[in-house]
Amino acid sequence: MNIGNGEKMVAGTWSGPFQVPASIPDRADIVIIGGGIIGVSTAWFLARRGVDVVLCEKGHIAGEQSSRNWGWVRQQGRDPRELPMMIESMRIFRELENEIGESVGFSQGGCLFAARDEKQLSSYHEWLKLVSDYDLDTRVIDANELGRLVSGASVKWLGAMYTPSDGRAEPHKAAPAIARAAIRSGATILTSCAVRGIESSAGTVSAVITEHGPIRTSVVLCAAGAWTSMFCRSLGIAVPQLNVRGTVARTAPTEKILTGNLFDRRLGMRLRDDGGYTVAHGSVLDHGLTPSTFRYAFKFLPALMKEYKVLRLRFGKDFFDELATPKKWALDKESPFEKSRVLNPDPSPGILKGIRRNLDAVFPHMAGVEIVEAWAGIVETSPDVVPMIGEVGDVSGFHIATGFSGHGFGIGPGAGKALAAMLTGDDNSIDLTPFRLSRFFDGSPIRPMSAI
Ligand SMILES: Cc1cc2nc3c(=O)[nH]c(=O)nc-3n(C[C@H](O)[C@H](O)[C@H](O)COP(=O)(O)OP(=O)(O)OC[C@H]3O[C@@H](n4cnc5c(N)ncnc54)[C@H](O)[C@@H]3O)c2cc1C
Fold first, then answer.
1. For 84-136, what is each residue's pLDDT tens digit?
2. 304 C-alpha to center of ligand 1: Å?
């Protein structure tokens, strides 16, 4: 497929030179591992509370999932456990640009899940019943109303689930802008600074060991995205996590056919702030089998069964790469995190062809619109497709926030606010117990209620 002139608007986030810190602080109240939307949002909220926080990112800020995602900021279709945090996140997004004085491309253009059959439509009614306690503006609309919201589609949809207040933002802008706001509020943000492990004393965290030396601290948040399971395993903590590759494309600016986000069985599509669209395949989960697939297969069975129709399994490089990665490493030598500063999978050529085909089929008048950029990202998911948050392991002071499962961008600022309250021990208006890691080990039923 023809991909335009190689303009790297999104890929610019991860393809520049690495910024190595000239020096690192020797102590901090709290150290965050990982500079994605979760890490930077937490750092921002902590710094605003006057906490001395240092964030260590092994590569670039938002170099992995947080710049590569579709940019949907949605409440609809979520597992109800996520809604309090998501509703708060939406409130933060609405005020974000004013608060930080930078554009993140946020707009409340609405979110649509279009239905091709009655079964799909009735699943939307079911979801509405499930979340009736929340004050959402979500409703199921008919084909006529949908036709007024989306123009030029060739598909005869029956209707859609629609949330007018849902929104979108530009992922390549948002996390870097929040990181800059955190720095202005007093946070220290270090890039090209992999954390190799932690040290403890008398059962409490005493330091993180980075590639540039130790930082003494008693509180650590591991928000390392797809790397969290491996990091925690080196500490003897099991975090069930599986990775899925998402291939994404961006079109040139073109005719406006919708104001927000549209999901159809064949297409996930979002209007961008430059007038183009971010487009992805609606129904492919592309998973490279690894030893972790088999280690955690049982816990992931319910999620995989739910998605079996769209699952594409590959066996090859991913399996042998993980097999060759050590389970533990010396903290005074190069670690796996420095060897792979940016997880940068290739977009799947087959899926890109599918995106082009589906875009042209669903919106025939888009057939001439150029695709100017394509990329891929690794989505990390938990067995019930909601995050894992809290203090874990035998050493006190070590926390995780991971497993945001394909929808962590929109919820990121809300999660950051809740995590800042958790780490400082302040009153938290958002109950984080539904996200405890132990739910996967204490016999609780594993019931995914939303899609990856
Ligand atoms: C293709 C795709 C589409 C998606 N679409 C959406 C969407 O439309 N809406 C939505 O809400 N969500 C979406 N998501 C999900 C969303 O992007 C993620 O849930 C979210 O970005 C996770 O943020 P994070 O900060 O936890 O992880 P990440 O952004 O992955 O950040 C983790 C960071 O930790 C760093 N790190 C790891 N180990 C170490 C270490 N040892 N030392 C230092 N640094 C380390 C990594 O380099 C990385 O930068 C999508 C994801 C993908 C890939």
1. 999 999 999 999 999 999 999 999 999 999 999 999 999 999 999 999 999 99
2. 21
- Residues 24-76 pLDDT 10s: 999 999 999 999 999 999 999 999 999 999 999 999 999 999 999 999 999 99
Q: Which of 268, 271, 272 is nearest to 281 (CA)?
A: 268
Whether residue 8 is contained in a domain is answered as no
* Domain hosting residue 302, numbered range: 23-440
Q: Indicate whether 2 pLDDT > 60.
A: no
**For a substitution probing ligand 1, which of 38, 64, 419 has the most ligand atoms within 8 Å of its CB?**
64
Q: Give the closest residue to 52 by CA, choosing from 69, 28, 35, 23.
A: 28
343 CA: nearest ligand 1 atom? 47
Task: Give the CATH number for residue 58.
Answer: 3.50.50.60
Positive/negative CA dihedral, 205, 47, 386, 273? negative
Query: CA geometry: angle at 371 spanning 367 and 376, to 5°?
Result: 130
pTM of the model: 0.97
Residue 384 lies in a domain: yes
138 inside domain: yes
Residue type, 234: S
Residue 414 included in any domain: yes
288 or 216, which is more confident?
Answer: 216
Distance 118 CA to ligand 1 centre (A): 34
Check if 124 has its Cβ closer than 6 Å to any atom of ligand 1: no
| Ligand 1 within 6 A of CB of 64 | yes
Q: How many domains does the chain have?
A: 1
